[in-house]
Amino acid sequence: MNTETKKPSLYERLGGVYAIAAVVDTFIDRIMVAPELNANPLVDEAHHRVPKAGFKYLVTEMVCQVTGGPQRYTGKTMAESHKHLNISASEWVVFAGIFKAVLDEYKVPEAEQAELFAIVGSTRSDIVVERPVSKAG
Ligand code: HEM
C-alpha cells in the first residue's frame, strides 16, 4: 500500500517559485564570481558574457520544472550549454560545494537537499568533460 500519495512535490516543499528564485539569485551571484571556477578561461569568458538576469531566469525555470513545478524549461540542453566549457571534475566539486553552502544559508532541510542533489547529480555526465588519464612514460 502506498501511504505517500499525498506527499507534496519537492517544488512545493521548497516553497515554490519565489523561494526557488531567491536561492538561484544568490547561487548564481556566487558562482559567477567564484575564482576556482573562473580559473577555467572558458567558464570565465562565459560568466562575463552571459547576462545575469537571463541566466538566473533559465536556471529558475529549470529547477522549478525538475522539482515538479508547473514551469517549463526553455533553454538549451545541459550538454549544449556546457560541453564547450571543458568543465573538470574538480570544478564540478566546487560548484556543488557552493550550491550546498547556499542551500544551508536558506535553511533548506537535509531531506530536500538530498533530493535536489540527486537531480543535479544526474546531469553531471552532460556537464563534466572526462579527460583521459595521461600515461606517463
Ligand atoms: C547541475 C549543474 C548545472 C546546472 C543545472 C546548470 C544550468 C545551466 C543553465 C540552465 C544554463 C543556461 C542554458 C542556456 O543558455 O540555454 C547554463 C549555462 C552555463 N553554465 Fe551551467 N549548470 C550547471 C553546472 C555548471 C557548472 C559546474 C559550471 C561551471 C563550472 C557552469 C557554468 C555555466 C556557464 C558559464 C554557462 C553559460 C554558457 C554559455 O552561454 O556559453 N554550469 N547552465
From TrEMBL:
Domain of life: Bacteria
Molecular functions (GO terms): heme binding; metal ion binding; oxygen binding
Keywords, comma-separated and alphabetical: Heme, Iron, Metal-binding, Transport
Record field: transmembrane: none
Record's keyword annotation contains Metal-binding: yes
Residue sites binding heme per the record: H82
Residues in coiled coil: none
InterPro entries: Globin-like_sf, Globin/Proto, Hemoglobin_trunc
Name of this chain's protein: Cyanoglobin like protein
Record lineage: Bacteria, Pseudomonadati, Myxococcota, Myxococcia, Myxococcales
